[in-house]
C-alpha cells in the first residue's frame, strides 16, 4: 500500500453511464494540473468534450469507445483514469493527478492501442500541444511525433500533436508528413502528396493555385492566380491550413492570418514545401 492505495495493476474496462461524472472530474483535474491552458479554455474543453451527453454518445457509438481504469483503495475500487478512441485514433487520455505513477496511464494506453488497431491507417494518438509531457509519455511506447495540426473546440482554435508507432512511420516515410530532429515540420515533396486543390475560394471569388511556392515557418505558401491561365497573380495559399487569408507586409514578409504560418524574406524556396 502507498498513500492508502494498492499498487496492483489497474483494471481497464469499457465505461458505463455511472462512470461519466467521475470521467468529467478527472478530465478537469488533469487539464488543470498538466496543461498550460487558461481557466476559460479548460472550462470550454470540459463543457464540450466531457459533457454528460457527449460522453454518453461515445457509449452508444459502435465506432468509438470510452475506457476507464480502476485501482483498489481502502474503500474499494476507484476510477483513476480514462481514455477515448475511435477510427484508429486515441484522442484523450487522462489520469487523476493524485493517482499518477501507479501504471494507470500505461494500462489505458495499451488497451486503447490494442482496440484501436483495426484501422487501415494504423493507430494514431493526439495530444494538445499545451501538454508538454505527452511526447515523453508516447515515446515510452515507441511512438513518434509525425504531425502538428489545428483542432477547434467550441470557438477556440487549438493545436495538437499527432503521434504514430515508429515502425509505421518508417514504412510510410515517403508518403506522410515527417518531423525533423529539430522538431520542424517537413511536408511531402510532391504536390500530389499534399492533396492541394486546383482552385479555391477567396473573398467570394475563385482563385487558382499555381506551381510556384515559397517556404514558411509551418509549411509552404503556393502562389494563387485570379485567372485559370495563371497570368494574373492574386496572392498566396497557405499549405499548412488551406487558407487564403494571407497578407504580404512592406518588407515582403508573408503571413497567414488563420494559423500564423510566416515566410520571411531571408527564407529560400525549398522544394520540400511543395
| Strand elements, count | 16
Please state roughly what percent of the residues sit in beta strands, choosing from under 5%, 5-15%, 15-25%, 25-35%, 35-45% or over 45%: 25-35%
Mean pLDDT: 81
CATH class of the largest domain: Alpha Beta
Number of helices: 7
Question: For this structure, what is the CATH homologous superfamily of the largest domain?
Answer: Gcn5-related N-acetyltransferase (GNAT)
Q: Structural class of the secondary elements?
A: alpha+beta
Oligomer: single chain
The CATH architecture of the largest domain can be named as 3-Layer(aba) Sandwich
Query: How much helicity do the residues have?
Result: 10-25%
Helix-strand string: EHHHEEEHEHEEHEEHEEEEEEE
Strand line-up in the sheet with most strands: 1-2-3-4-5-7-6
Task: State the major sheet.
Answer: 7 strands, mixed
Low-confidence stretches: 1-6, 171-190, 267-274
Q: Over the alpha carbons, how many angstroms does the gyration radius reach?
A: 22 Å
Described by the principal axes of the CA atoms, the overall outline is: elongated
CATH topology term of the largest domain: Aminopeptidase
Describe this structure in words.
There is one protein chain. Helices cover 23% and strands 35% of the residues. It folds into two domains: 11-186, Gcn5-related N-acetyltransferase (GNAT) (Aminopeptidase, 3-Layer(aba) Sandwich); 191-273, no CATH class. The protein is elongated. The protein has helices spanning 20-34, 39-49, 52-60, 104-116, 134-139, 166-171, 191-194, and strands at 11-14, 64-73, 76-86, 89-95, 124-128, 143-153, 156-165, 178-179, 185-186, 199-202, 205-214, 221-225, 233-238, 246-248, 254-256, 262-263. 29% of the residues are buried. The protein is an alpha+beta fold. The protein has seven helices and 16 strands. It starts with 10 loop residues before the first strand and ends in an 11-residue tail after the last strand. A seven-stranded mixed beta sheet has the order 1-2-3-4-5-7-6, sandwiched between helices.
